[in-house]
Amino acid sequence: MKSPSDFELSRRKLLAGSAASIALTAAPSIVNAQVPAVEAAVADVSAVWKVSFTVNGAARGLTLDPRTTLLDALREHLHLTGTKKGCDHGQCGACTVIVGGRRINSCMTLAVMHEGERITTVEGLGTPENMHPMQAAFVKHDGYQCGYCTPGQICSAVAVLDEIKAGIPSHVSADLNAPPQLSNAELRERMSGNICRCGAYSNIAEAISEVAGRPA
Amino acid sequence: MRFETAATINPIDQLKVVGKPADRIDGPLKTTGTARYAYEHHEGVSNPAYGYVIGSAIAKGRIAGMDLAAAKSAPGVRAIVTADNAGKLGKGDRNTAKLLGGPDIEHYHQAIALVVADTFEQARAAAELVRVDYVRTDGAFDLAAVKDIAKPRAVFGGPADTAVGDFADAFAAAPVQLDANYTTPDQAHAMMEPHASIAAWNGDKLTLWTSNQMIAWGVGEVAKTLDIPKENVRLISPFIGGGFGSKLFVRSDALLAALGARATGRPVKVALPRPFVFNNTTHRPATIQRIRIGAARDGKISAIGHEEWSGNLPGGRPEGAVAQTRLLYAGANRMTATRLAELNLPEGNAMRAPGEASGMMALEIAVDEMAERLGMDPIEFRIINDTQVDPEKPERPFSQRRLTECLRTGAERFGWNKRNPQPGRVRDGRWLVGIGVAAAFRNNLLTKSAARVRLDNNGVVTVETDMTDIGTGSYTIIAQTAAEMMGVPMEKVVVRLGDSTFPVSSGSGGQWGGNNSTAGVYAACVKLREAVAQKLGFNSAEAEFADGEVRSGNRRVPLAQAAGDSGLGAEDGIEYGDVDKKYQQSTFGAHFVEVGVDVATAEMRVRRMLAVCAAGRILNPKTARSQVIGAMTMGVGAALMEELVVDERAGFFVNHDLAGYEVPVHADIPHQDMIFLDETDPMSSPMKAKGVAELGICGVAAAVANAVYNATGVRVRDYPITLDKLLEEMPDVG
User: Fold this and answer.
1) Which of B122, B125, B626 is nearest residue A145 as measured by Cβ atoms?
2) Which of A19, B130, B149, B278 has the fewest C-beta atoms lying within 10 Å of its C-beta?
3) CA angle, B560 as apex, B555 and B562 as ends, to 5°?
4) pLDDT tens figures, B318-335
5) Above 0.95 for ipTM, yes or no?
6) Could you give the strand order of the β-sheet that contains B604-614, starting from the edge strand earlier in sequence?
7) CB neighbours (10 Å) of residue B162?
8) Which of B666, B674, B694 to mutate to test the interface with A (most CBs of A within 10 A)?
9) pTM of the predicted protein model
10) Max intra-chain CA distance, chain A
């Protein structure tokens, strides 16, 4: 296995290679000027790293290409495909999982950065036969249509209620020193990183509100 | 089963299961992450390789050379597919541009290569090593610049142009006139699941797990493109992460996965990266629209004209934005015109309610403007010009048309009488508040659809059809239909969809899926009922199916027993005669919107929304309501934020990701109300249902625009309505 310092070096080269290819795409006429930087870019792709973490309560060990995102580790290596890839750029929220009690976009973080951490995906919240209250509320209120953003919405929703309980303020919290309220505006603001193109927002708000114990 | 005349009483009318707001039967799978989408079929796909697509960096021209050497020698790389080495490829009838370009390039991000490697990370890294030399040629990218050389072009089975009476004279003579231009931008479907496929060859037989709305179309297009028999192609698409028209057609992920799998002898997975989807696949084309309305002082329209200009690649189609103006309002003198120009932007094609969605964005502002010129309430103006017959062909009545009732019901529910017709007069703190209305209109399309049903010795009914569920609720309404027909609870129905080994259905598109696919299941169930009755020696016309039993006279037999160990099966479909020729079949509604516009910044917020829809029998009010509120959400996007920005120099959509192409998020959408009028349409099918999914978007954006006008007095005719278009003219309210 390569040492972390080797990895750092190759990662910088990779970034240089990426930058060159972006220039290539944007301005094809200057391609030739960019070639040398590209050559070095893939020298280290055979590097494999070991990582261990807990997923939905089970210890999992993986040997991965260090470029593997947490999202792809879950989907392609552990076959936990409940977590969705909508944009791979942190713009849609479909890949939301809960790591150490906080929700994150799993496409925006490398798997090897999560050594020893506790990861919860939508599969860890409940099963079709034994749904988490948030999952059951989404079914009851039809808080989805195509279902592709749904696991991310549900992981976010579960984490949002915990964030409010923990007193974490948001952009719409009027008083940063007061405990945030379970208001409609707070829920909608905090859920706005999870896009639903089918447009189930009104129903999702009702599902979350029911679980939170307040009228939508 | 042929459907030739009005439906009479049938088992669906019992409404024991159909018409109930049942939870989706696929809900527990979708909410627990156990529904499998195209890229997620790991069972039966061993040792897959990963493909990464490379797109053209120019919009028009040709590839002078590709240097694949560095990429080929990169770690893990197994094959690189290009037009050079892919063998002879055909083009599907429903694709405008080739799915694999080269050497000629038809549009920006047209796929030109697939790099296949052992891992996704290796494929992506190697793709960056492919060097391409292009020879660029000039293209046309600005619709306004080519508008005047656009040519007439028919679309959706209708003519390019229509004319009734003498529009020019009647318009010139009208005491009150409106003549205005409107524009709608290019828009993206932006469904949450990018196009994705897994391809696996077994000898000369290809299996594609793919995300596709129209399975049978897809089989034919894949076969034609690869020049292999249709029998050798299987498509599997049980769950689809949104489509909105973008997955009506086979796209580059499917073709390239198939080619990559052939080149490597391994299953290959390909998902289009999100920033690639916007220019590689299809979009709703931009339009320029001119609308002229002439009316007498009493508000009766004497002349109505609607012209549309849009652009597309050579061989593409126009948007079709004049379609609804042929049918929506009365008026003796009428004209419509459809003009198409060649543009070298990516392929324009169907997006949710193609034609009407764009057309209603313009027409329903024009109607609001005309009402103001007449000094009339915009609802009254619409009602005065309502019609029960096709205005171009008065001998054709509408099968059902309750536009007036939708408007009146909505007005009452929304509090329309509190609207101040003088714009810019209602203030709530820092907000100027306005309310707006628009009609909703979308045609109901009939298309044949088949299914097979099987009854087993546990009394379980299994339905198989290649119908798809793109979030529309197909699984659930099909289960309700089969349960109603066979007299069993929904729990006793298994629905299997999205597989080309199943009978060919209507598929999902054009809001035709709900009515047609359930009508096909109805037909198959009628045949199964006959088979059950025949086996038991019952008179099938008298046999009653209820509570898991079949009854005739004083005999009753449990369905499980009737099926016996060998079970019973039947297959049939619905086919239509000319009911939709004799009767115009459309769906109607009214949208009401309240907005607040910040007096200082012109920031716009939607505060309340209501839709009232009349769309035949509603098979499941819960899932149908979701379709409509989802469409209302997309309509808010169209009104206030959605626009693919064209780089007119390089010829591509600049904002090609979900940060640049803004769609509504939670914070943008208030609680939404919606009401279905109680209606059945016996001309639509034995289900007496119609589409609702696209009706919901038609008119929403105009209702928002009219509300913004009512709030501010600023009339924007150029979508999306962003605050920069309001600021200069905002009223000085202090």
Assistant:
1) B626
2) B149
3) 50
4) 999 999 999 999 999 999
5) yes
6) B427-428, B431-443, B586-598, B604-614, B672-676
7) 17
8) B666
9) 0.94
10) 62
